[in-house]
Design a protein that fits this description.
Layout lengths: L1 H5 L5 H9 E12 L8 E10 L9 E5 L3 E12 L5 H8 L5 E9 L2 E8 L2 H8 L4 E6 L5 H11 L16 H4 L4
Antiparallel strand pairs: 1-2, 1-4, 3-4, 5-6, 5-7
Length: 176
């Protein structure tokens, strides 16, 4: 029995998870605003990096000076989904590929909530009232994204042009 189990292939979910998930930490900047009477600081996502922190780690201050604090927020992942393959191709072929970071304010400060490399999903987020920043996509991720997108992107077949016929008189005829 043990001999048969050793030759069983890994479950599809396990294989897919390794191929479609890249653990990252999002870098958030908090800059002091000197002459703004409405707010004292400004938050924005400034980058992503490989998640090198132990599972469950809290955010880590990576740089600090009088004007700015930069923190890494571990525990996020870029996940690839088949239905977003076209959006991945649009993004990685753009002049400046991006990771789109959706973040929200909490009592302790800004926290990244979700990330995507789909141009379409990033645009959908930007169309809402959410705070979304586009940060540079690390170059080492592009071959991984390209391979996935090319494998799963299926362009829609072109529709044949339909020309008017006698049957269309009532709908496409002239207006008298």
């Amino acid at each position: 029995m043990a001999h048969l189990e050793a030759h069983n292939p890994p479950r599809m979910e396990e294989t897919d998870a390794k191929l479609t998930c890249w653990p990252i930490a999002v870098v958030m900047d908090c800059a002091a605003l000197a002459n703004n009477r409405w707010q004292s600081v400004q938050w924005q996502a400034s980058g992503v990096m490989n998640d090198i922190y132990p599972s469950g780690s809290a955010e880590q201050v990576v740089a600090r000076d009088e004007q700015r604090t930069r923190t890494a927020h571990p525990g996020l992942s870029i996940r690839l989904f088949r239905d977003e393959a076209e959006g991945y191709l649009y993004n990685i072929t753009a002049p400046e590929p991006k990771v789109f970071v959706l973040w929200r304010m909490h009592e302790s400060g800004a926290k990244p909530e979700r990330v995507t490399v789909s141009y379409h999903e990033g645009a959908r987020w930007m169309d809402t009232d959410e705070k979304v920043d586009g940060v540079p996509l690390p170059a080492e991720m592009i071959p991984w994204i390209r391979a996935f997108a090319e494998q799963h992107y299926k362009p829609e077949p072109k529709k044949q042009k339909r020309y008017a016929s006698n049957k269309d008189k009532g709908r496409m005829g002239r207006m008298d």
